[in-house]
Amino acid sequence: MCEITKSQSFLNEGWQVMAQIRKRNWCREFLRENGPSTTQEVLNYIEKKTTGLGGATARSLGMIMKCDSMIRKIDKVTLTGETGVKYSVNLWAIKEE
């Protein structure tokens, strides 16, 4: 069994915080350039910027944007998937100052 030392745990937590900051900055960048967008559109942008190590899901990205003071949720949009099933996604934008 592998034990994690306090220093390894701290490094792992530090890496996760830096990853969230990086994703938050990419969300802001995308929304500034493209205006109001869905979580999935922002996620697609981030996936193109990363080398497969991004580890973002629509849910985790939504939580990052929800907690960001510069981003606001505008609305919830209902879309229809390829199989005809309807689902809701959030629409996000940069807050006006």
Description:
The chain contains three helices and three strands; from the N terminus they run αβααββ. It has helices at residues 6-34, 39-49, 58-66; strands at 37-38, 71-80, 86-94. Strands 1-3-2 form a three-stranded antiparallel sheet. A hairpin with a 5-residue loop joins β2 and β3 (86-94). α1 (6-34) crosses α2 (39-49) and α2 crosses α3 (58-66). It is globular and about 40 Å long. The N and C termini lie far apart (52 Å).
Give a short synopsis of this structure.
The chain is α+β, with helices and mostly antiparallel strands.
Protein structure class: alpha+beta
The helix/strand order is HEHHEE
Main sheet characteristics: 3 strands, antiparallel
Strand elements, count: 3
* CATH superfamily (homologous) name: Winged helix-like DNA-binding domain superfamily/Winged helix DNA-binding domain
Overall 3D shape: globular
How many H/I helical runs? 3
Return the CATH class: Mainly Alpha
Low-confidence stretches: 1-11
Mean pLDDT: 82
Total domain modules: 1
CATH topology: Arc Repressor Mutant, subunit A
Portion in strands: 15-25%
| CATH-derived architecture | Orthogonal Bundle
